Amino acid sequence: MVSIRVRSASVDFPIFDAKSRSLKTTVLGVVGGRIGANASRVVVVKALQDIDLDLDHGARVALIGHNGAGKSTLLRLLSGIYEPTSGTAEVTGRVAPVFDLAVGMDPEISGLDNIMIRGLFLGMTHEQMQERVDDIAEFTELGDYLRMPIRTYSTGMRVRLALGVVTSIDPEILLLDEGIGAVDAAFLRKARKRLTDLVDRSGLLVLASHSDELLRELCDTAIWLDHGQIRQQGPLEPVLEAYKNRPGGR
Description:
alpha/beta, Rossmann fold, 6-stranded mixed β-sheet, 4-stranded antiparallel β-sheet, about 30% strand
């Protein structure tokens, strides 16, 4: 059975050459959290602090918070990309991390070849992707462009291809950082239907998004992150309401 168990987990990033306030501020804007120093007086960004989580099969969790609050860092901790500086993070089940739709795409090869590569990157087998190629091709509506290098694609065409692959997988744990703009409204509606079906097939979902509409559609609980710490967690609507009513609002 899939599960996520996180105990007192923190993630710090040492900045060994942080010589100025401007550099520190720039780094903070990228990874979130708070700036501090360790015992060796090296500047560190405290991206996550004392995170505790218990998620089991069927969980549909929204991550909310301002830019730099730690949402992406938490997703990368759960995926195993980041190790906790302190504490533990134990994940049971096959993880499909979907943080950047462009990851795993090679601009010099065809769309069809990229379908295979991206699927393998997301944990599928070659045989599984072969079975899905026709469905993905039909969904993208890219036609003969699928035989051309994707460096010839527009941004919207690349998003179509990436979404076709992402929404074809069968994940046990789906970690999703929303980023599906750059396509026309009609295609986006089509993609949202496939995205909903993808979530239905997954055992556990953690979704970071600024879209209340998407969070309500896909999630039933929420975690509000603020400067790398969990500010509130529980049923989706109360957490969303508390976040929107915080000082300064959205």
